[in-house]
Amino acid sequence: MVREHTRPAPRPLSPPAAHGYSYPPTMPSAPPPPPKPSLPRAAALGLAGGLLLGGLGLFAAGLRGLFGTLECTGLSGPECELLQQATHELGRFQSLAGGALVALGSALFVLVRRRPPVPPQAP
Question: How much of the chain is in helix, strand and coil states, percent to nearest 5?
Answer without folding.
Answer: 55, 0, 45
